[in-house]
Amino acid sequence: MSKKSTDKLDVFTRKIVKELPEEKVSLSFSKNVMASINALEVNETKVYKPLISKKVWFVIISSFIGLIIYGWKLIPEDQEGYLSEMSNINIGDILNYSPFDLNFKVSNITVYSFVFLALMISIQIIYFKHRIDKQYE
Fold this sequence. Notes:
Layout: H1 3-19, H2 29-39, H3 54-74, E1 89-90, H4 91-95, E2 105-106, H5 108-135
Antiparallel strand pairs: 1-2
């Protein structure tokens, strides 16, 4: 807006405000406000509820320990382990893409970390999708 139109608007607004009668507040204004506040329903405070309960933590930890013990019992004593064969993974054979020579080795830690990362990301996606869907119901 230009300065001229702003000045006209300012003059008009001042004129209208001067013509308005003064409003008087009733004597029971505070009492009425407090009565309306007291009439409102008081929301209960939310009690902290853990995301994963103690029972679920117990089940998760017990299952994890049980799986470790079960896997340990399955390995014959004369064998190194099932995962020792995966120490020299050839990515070129897995991809089977002949124009490029992708012949390099990946350590076990790298493979395990990517598998664990994929697992954790998928769990988070499922969890947050469920939580967002629940929030907008």
